[in-house]
Amino acid sequence: xxxxxxxxxxxxxxxxxxxxxxxxxxxxxxxxxxxxxxxxxxxxxxxxxxxxxxxxxxxxxxxxxxxxxxxxxxxxxxxxxxxxxxxxxxxxxxxxxxxxxxxxxxxxxxxxxx
Length: 114
Known about the structure:
The chain contains four helices and six strands. By secondary structure, it is an alpha+beta fold. It has one domain (about 1-114). α2 (about 60-70) packs across α3. The chain is elongated, with a radius of gyration of 15 Å.
């Protein structure tokens, strides 16, 4: 699962071994590992974050992407460009956190399925 704690993405994965019965839990902060993220997208669907005004402040958008995904400036710029052009696709938790943090920066957006 993905969750938000203190305006930061976190992830948790509980699993057990059918052979030995061992139960384990892996946890981390920041973006979920790609394999777990793909499973979340497969199980719960994709969501799209859209800007209400494509002329929104670029610096605020870059800061939010860097904060949420711990990404480089170049990666954040690419995500911000994608958001402006077609919307940013991600998990429900990711897109809702981005929307909330953007709202706090005065940038209005919405989250829609697909």
